Amino acid sequence: MNLLESIIHYYNGEVRHGFYGALLGGLLLIAGALLWKWAGPLSLLKGLSWPMVLIGLLVGIGGAASSFVTRKAIPARVEQYRKDPATFLEQESVKVEKTHKSWSGIRLFWGILSFGGLILSLTIGRPFWLGVGLGTLASGILLSVFEHYSMKFNEQYYQQVTTAASSNAVLNQPVNRPAKQFMQVIAKPPVVIERTLVPNDPDTTQCSINQADDSLNSRSLATIIPGTTTVASNTVIPDTPAILTGALDIISIPQSKRKRKLLDYYNSDLIKDGGISAKRCWFRKKYIKE
To answer: What is the reported pTM?
Structure first.
């Protein structure tokens, strides 16, 4: 049975339920009226007729109205389902949810009514009130059984509608597609290679921080001593370190492979021979080849 057939079957069942309710109410009303007419005053049957007439009137009118309204609504509901199933399921799920929650209240009402009739029939010993209590108890039990079968019928339709509504919601839910993945290319920084060229003979060059300071602070030119070769150059040291991005160009100064010896400033005869005073040798260290 598909959903459309279940809808038609349910609404036809509701029409029958209303009709049976109206029929039951009519029978109670007729029986109560006959007892009211033929029973003696303040008798058991006279008391029994009161709840039968009142409950029969209530159930008969309610059942007839429900059957009439449901019968007229069947064509419209079927047409709505054929044209727009999503809207129909949305509205129908709300309706059956309310009906589903109302069953507990209906059963509680008929249960309290039956219990009240039992208490009334046991506490008051007069025949009239005993009849009222027994009639209320019997009507409450009868209608509780009637509503129990109606509830089981409605619960089947409730399960079908809620299942169809949840399935429709899943089908209409937008699909979350994964976002396109973009490849991100990260440019690596250039590799800085710093090279320091070392002379072949490490003894040919003497490095000293004091010599670098002297070179920065001095403005005098190189002095050539006979028999020796000395090259002096100004060195500039930047305030902040520089990053070398290419090959490091280093100017190598050719050095003599022979060892050089520091010239004695004051006791050497070469100073006198070269005409160099001792004061100038104080500021400039002089070397002599061995």
So the answer is: 0.55
